Amino acid sequence: MSGDDDFSDAERAFAAGFTAPYTSRDVSSEAIGAHIVDWYTLPDTDAAAEWDALRRWVEWATVRYNIPQTVIPACWYQHGALVEELSALHTAHRAAFDSSDAGYGPIGWHERLTIAVPRLAKAYGGGCNNGHQTSKPRTWLEPGADWDAWTSQAHAHRDTQAG
Fold first, then answer.
1. Label partner for 133 (CA 20 to 30 A): which of 20, 54, 96, 97?
2. Is the confidence at residue 84, as pLDDT, over 90?
3. How confident is the model at residue 5 (pLDDT cuts 50, 70, 90)?
4. Of 138, 42, 132, 137, whose CA–CA distance to 78 is shortest?
5. What is the distance between the alpha carbons of residues 46 and 131, in angstroms, rounded to a whole number?
6. Angle, vertex CA 62, rays to CA 61 and CA 65, nearest 5
7. pTM (2 d.p.)
8. Residues β-bridged to residue 129
9. Which residues make Cβ contacts (< 8 Å) with residue 158, sequence separation at least 6?
């Protein structure tokens, strides 16, 4: 071999993909059909479109898969844990049925749905059969002196006996 000149530009570019340092995990999943919504950081300007897309998909999926109201109530959008679970399922569904899938996506989707239904039931917990019942969200107190005292040590060996 006489060196780098033996390779075309395309071959060098292809090889660089395997040898170049990986510098970022900040890549999009859009190429495989996924559209991930991070509800925690979603800007208000994008909210209406995202809610509408999720609502249309939830309505379709609950009818298609005959998911009862005891699992996903009509007020699902007011239950944060349900929103997160349903949004994740929506993303998985899009990716599973994307044209770039090799053919295993649909069966994977159905496996994920089977696993998710009990989680959906747990995330909801019932109680809104006669209209939405607002659940009291967990709250946190501002950390105080006990937090400062606790976090001043690693506590790695607090449960082991000396000697």
1. 54
2. yes
3. low
4. 132
5. 28
6. 75
7. 0.64
8. 131
9. none
